[in-house]
Amino acid sequence: MNFKISSFANRTEIFGFLVLAVLIVVILPLALDIFRLNLIGKYLTYAFVAIGLVLCWGAGGILSLGQGVFFGLGGYCMAMFLKLEASTPEATKIQSTPGIPDFMDWNQLTELPWFWEPFHSFPLTLVAILVVPTVFAYILGVAMFKRRVGGVYFAIITQAIAAILTILIIGQQGYTGGVNGITDLRTLMGWDIRTESAQYTLYFVNAFLLFVVLLVAQYVRKSKLGRLLVAMREKEDRVRFSGYSVANFKIFVFCLGAAFSAIGGAMFTLQVGFMSPSFVGIVPSIEMVIFTAVGGRLSILGAVWGALIINQAKTLLSEAFPELWLLAMGGLFIAVVMAFPNGLAGLYTTYVEPRLPKFLSGNGGKDADDDSDADVPLASKQAAE
Amino acid sequence: MQTEVKDFVLSVEGLTVSFDGFKAVDDLSFYVEEEEIRVIIGPNGAGKTTVLDLICGKTQASHGSIKFRDTELTDLSENQIVHAGVGRKFQNPSIYEDLTVFENLELSFPRGHGVFGALVFKRDKEVIDRVEEIAADIFLSDHLQQPAGLLSHGQKQWLEIGMLLIQDPDLLMLDEPVAGMSVSERVKTAELLQRIIKGRSVLVIEHDMKFVEDIAHRVTVLHQGKMLSEGSMDHVQNDPKVVEVYLGH
Question: What is the mean pLDDT of residues B54-77?
């Protein structure tokens, strides 16, 4: 029998990737005004988190209900840099202590706390955006996965951490800006991020980073590590007794998800112009799980669609019937879990793909070994045999 | 009396484990020689599976020592025990149903077991050849690209045996390898086991006496966590204590 080396992506995936790229890079910027496009950019920052959740939860079976923590840490790191830049002594000369952020002055702080100091430097900030959430995820991962904490217990603990971090941020108003968050951000190294042209630029930077993250996620899924995650989700003991340290793989994928979320958080701050605890806590963390579930927790492209569609629906529905949105989202989540557990991506592979012309179909009969990602339901795999 | 010093691949001494005061394995000692096929039999609840759990590190011993050659296994983690050369098959076929047969075998290939190693692992000729070789051994050459979930029960058992073989362990532990198989599958499995146990030490738990008779060099009979009898199949079958336990209830 003749095998080809597992390729990077099958045709369905390449097709899906291109469609998404054309939509995000060409169609949306042409069709929408900058206000709406900026909103789309904001939705896409949630997609970073959703992609991380596909790897952790969809592939590895590790459900984190605290991804907002990492999104928030990334966002706060960026916001701290921007806030320091906006708090020059000249701009803050009416304060009793000029040169520190305004909320610190209101809270009777007279000097910048030590942990704010590194955020004077942009390179250090970029490092912090990636390193702080990843190291935090690493500590959590070691503490829990080495002790074999998993499943529901892991989910509850991550949720508790999201709650704790929110309370901490709100409580330490003088250091964090409290419940209002860090607001009134203006320039990035002298470049005004509030102008229309800057918002266009940031939208495209965000889109570029999103595709980089998608490619990294695709590489991980197609590597042996990706197959191990699926194996661990199914039979953790068998993986352990095949000579793998299961905890190390869980820690890795949890850290990777955290790093993705942090990039999303930083881009959120840049595009929206502020960061607050309302993007850190339990509710946003669970919303991010819902985006992933609706889009399809086994598909990284599905996760992006989920983040886009749910947020667009949220905006439209909240404009028309503000009180209905939460009910609608709750109902949608229940419907997805009950009726189509693989989300939109699952519906696509089951109903749409078989009707597409053969050259677009991933299961052209010759690359059955590409289906390692298991996002094709067994029934259709059987049909492909 | 001076006896010749034998090479033991596995020395279990004074092994005890208690779950909330209940001693599932109680002061058990036995020795497995190089290239020996040892079968553990005993009534339900005798502690057979627990013994395998203790050896492979799934359960921590309360007392006693398990030596694999010169390595004390009770100090090692599960994956270190595997790397020391001990492979274990579970009672229920334990395979990855969403992955293909090929991928199931590939994941057990002894390379790229670290996080970084798994990220850069390449499916090269060595891997493919080895997987195909093992697949031929376990009668699954025609099923390599099938999701493992679609295999029959017997084929799943073979696949798990194959996943062990590809690790090439020195000590192979099999928990009821022919349970739930049809007659023809059972015959094929016996033949498969006869073939793969050459040059290895094997520890098997099995209820099927015909099968035990076919393969066992020596038999250890467990009862309530203790050793009841040990020796050749003939010896234990005629041991009054064994007859009592099996027929007395």
Answer: 90
